[in-house]
Amino acid sequence: MLTKNSKPSRRLHSIAETPEVVSNTMLLDGLGKISKLWILRELYGKVYVPTIVLDELRESRARGQIEESDWILVLMPNESQLAAAKRMAHDLLEKFEELDKENAFIIALAKACGAKKFLTNDRAGVEAARSISLKPIWISGIILEAYQKHIIKNVKPILDELRTSGVWISDQVYQRVLEKAK
Predict the structure, then answer these.
(1) For 54-76, how does the pLDDT look when each residue is reduced to its tens digit (9 = 90+)?
(2) Among 34, 94, 139, 156, which one is least packed by beta carbons within 10 Å?
(3) Quick one: which of 169, 148, 137, 150 has its CA closest to 34?
(4) Which residues in the chain belong to E strands, given as ranges?
(5) C-alpha neighbours within 13 Å on the C-beta side of residue 85
């Protein structure tokens, strides 16, 4: 088991390749609560997470699923990427007052490491990611994309399960996803 100060031992991967997709805590926790993290594997192959995400998931159901996976990889930036992420996070915090410090750093780190997509379920995170040309993808967008790619057969039960587990999906977004999935 990982503690706050320990390093995950079996999945440390340096950035030898540019990560396509980086996720924040909220999205992994949401899909983990309903045991649907596998959807991310089917959609993206690999998903990268900074160690801060693992720390935040310490008590989450998703933690065990993440530790058991071989496709959720720890994002290990080099010194210049880390320095760029710290500067960028500072700028994001000044620009987006609703953005928290951890999310700002995760978004900035994703960009500094060359990611193209950022998985989140946080409005401030979506706006901040867009501002630095990262493509944000909401949890509802992931479910819709999985349906469109025939990874799942029906969006409604998964959206309902997410909402029941405490994941925020507005009524408007819920209806829009149902309409698009017809």
Answers:
(1) 888 888 888 888 888 899 998 88
(2) 94
(3) 169
(4) 12-14, 21-23, 47-49, 72-76, 117-119, 135-137
(5) 24
CB-CB neighbours of 105 under 10 Å: 20
3-state secondary structure of 13: strand
Global pTM value: 0.87
| 3-class state of residue 118 by DSSP | strand
Residues 109-127: tens digit of each pLDDT:
999 999 999 999 999 999 9
- Do residues 16 and 114 lie in contact, with contact meaning Cβ atoms separated by under 8 Å? no
Close Cβ partners of 46 (under 8 Å, ≥ 6 residues apart): 19, 20, 21, 71, 72, 73
User: How far apart, in Å, are the Cα atoms of 83 and each of 101, 112, 125, 141?
Assistant: 15, 9, 20, 31
Which residue ranges form the domains of the chain, and what is each CATH number? 14-140 (3.40.50.1010)
Contact 129, 26 (CB under 8 A): no
